[in-house]
Design goal:
Length: 329
């Protein structure tokens, strides 16, 4: 008997319980991740196909938003690029007023230090004159107190690209914002500075916003082209992967550093191998929105936005209630 067959009963029972409780059993989550590795992604592909049939996409026409005006042809082009390469860098960018607002907002927030500071401190505001950790991660509930982030979370263009890529009604399952800073030369596994793939859901797409200028020296998002679809057997493992392993398997032109000016927007399928490059100098502030086809998998946060939303944002969430099921509005 093939090893992976032993995990299917645990996974299916756990998925059945999730449909009832909206929570994922720990054993089912472990089985889900093991199946992904052992079947080389086929288990996730099969579930994603099933979900596409169960949750048909919302009927959407031409939409406008942070990515500009998008019709079916433009969305199809974007999705095709993500399908082929694993990522897409948009021509459009976040406005100067928006990224300046988010930089100012972030400097007033308490953040989790990842990993904790050497003196044992676990939280702190980001102070570029006194860096305590390579990563300052903000709480999702705190991040959603900002109107710019609320508007981007319900942006019709991001939503439409996510839906087209997932081939079903998208579910907004994670929003994150964090500072990365030059701290130590050695890569931090906890700060996601070693290559890895994300596998918290069946299928997902992430939108990243560079809120500061990002060049090769201050933490570009690194991605191995095409690894969201296939990889050599040696790389199918649930854990961190060294740069030397990547370079022995892929050509230089497929190991990418995605740089960009502040305001740069990209869509990335982080099922593919990726990392944040260790900062040699400076800092990086990044904002991330994730959409998925199911909340089965890792623990997710419930976000309370009652009495905190502008009417257009609230209306969009109400009209797409399935997609914003973890939000109280």
């Amino acid at each position: 008997m093939k090893t992976y067959l032993l995990y299917y009963p645990i996974f299916y029972v756990g998925y059945w319980l999730f449909k009832i409780t909206r929570k994922t059993n720990w054993y089912a989550f472990v089985a889900f991740r093991r199946l992904f590795v052992l079947t080389k992604g086929r288990s996730n592909d099969a579930m994603s196909e099933k979900l596409s049939k169960e949750n048909a996409p919302y009927p959407l026409s031409s939409v406008s938003g942070v990515l500009g005006q998008l019709g079916d042809q433009e969305i199809s082009k974007i999705v095709s690029s993500i399908d082929n390469n694993g990522f897409y860098v948009f021509d459009a960018s976040l406005s100067e007023s928006a990224f300046n607002e988010l930089i100012h907002f972030s400097l007033g927030l308490e953040a989790e230090l990842i990993p904790p500071a050497k003196n044992g401190l676990k939280t702190s505001r980001y102070d570029r004159s006194k860096v305590l950790s390579p990563r300052y991660q903000f709480k999702e509930q705190d991040v959603y107190s900002n109107p710019v982030i609320q508007e981007l979370a319900t942006d019709a263009t991001l939503f439409s690209v996510a839906q087209a890529y997932l081939k079903c009604k998208p579910v907004q399952d994670l929003t994150a914002m964090w500072w990365s800073a030059a701290y130590e030369k050695e890569a931090s596994s906890e700060a996601a500075q070693l290559y890895h793939f994300d596998m918290d859901r069946f299928k997902f797409i992430k939108f990243f916003f560079y809120l500061t200028d990002v060049d090769s020296s201050n933490g570009p998002h690194c991605y191995v082209r095409g690894t969201h679809k296939t990889m050599p057997d040696i790389l199918w493992k649930d854990g961190r992967i060294q740069d030397s392993e990547i370079s022995s398997c892929y050509k230089k032109e497929d190991i990418l550093e995605i740089t960009g000016k502040k305001g740069t927007i990209m869509a990335v399928d982080t099922r593919g191998l990726h990392k944040g490059k260790v900062l040699e100098k400076g800092e990086r502030l990044i904002l991330q929105f994730e959409f998925t086809n199911s909340l089965f998998g890792a623990t997710y946060e419930s976000i309370d936005l009652q009495g905190k939303l502008k009417e257009p944002v609230k209306k969009f969430m109400q009209e797409h209630a399935y997609s914003y099921q973890r939000f109280s509005i």
